[in-house]
Amino acid sequence: MTSAPHHSEVTLRVNGKPHTLRVDNRRVLLDLLREDLELTGSKKGCDHGQCGACTVLADGRRVNSCLLLAVTLDGSEITTVEGLGGDGEEPHPLQRAFLDRDAFQCGYCTPGQLCSAVGLLAEAAAGHPSHVTDPAAPSGRPVPLDRTEIRERMSGNICRCGAYPRIVEAIEDVIE
């Protein structure tokens, strides 16, 4: 392969599978996922990191893939909505809860909502506080997730259809 200016080789582990690609240094992760790897679950909503439709997990943390340059993630583990169920035999518990609770309407935001919810569960379990976490809560201990905490942690994901109550209920179902 010839060396092209403004291009780099990037290796990502996406949904458990390694991918080595030569990408333009200016290319964002979302475009790489959708166009190069044909993982179209993550959506391009606002293209400014404000709606959350493009949310994926990078090394277990939720990120707006429309804002991250793919080259900055070399060596990272990326999980998209297609990879939440693991081997694909069974849906992730959050995917099942979203279906059971009818926590989507048009479905456009659902992949980002699901990835964000998986991320928030991990963040709370690791003791990461949010803006509404009680300041007196012990540092580094799991943060209890009530409706206020869930709403705050999901506030970066917009649902234009207004399925928010069902989304919160679905997340609560998984916590129980």
Q: How do the helices and strands line up, and which of them pair or pack?
A:
Layout: E1 7-14, E2 17-24, H1 29-36, E3 55-58, E4 61-64, E5 77-79, H2 93-101, H3 110-125, H4 147-153, H5 164-175
Parallel strand pairs: 1-5
Antiparallel strand pairs: 1-2, 3-4, 3-5
Helix pairs in contact: 2-5
The portion of residues assigned to helices is 25-40%
Cα separation of the termini: 52 Å
Strand-residue proportion: 15-25%
Question: In terms of per-residue confidence, which ranges show pLDDT below 50 for 5 or more consecutive residues?
Answer: none
User: What is the mean predicted local confidence, pLDDT?
Assistant: 94
Class inferred from helices and paired strands: alpha+beta
How are helices and strands ordered from N to C? EEHEEEHHHH
Radius of gyration: 17 Å
Per DSSP, the total helix count is 5
Shape: globular
Q: Strand arrangement, largest sheet?
A: 2-1-5-3-4
Number of strands: 5
Main beta-sheet annotation = 5 strands, mixed
In short, what is this structure?
It comes from Streptomyces eurythermus. Helix content is 30%, strand content 15%. The protein has 176 residues and is α+β, with helices and mostly antiparallel strands.
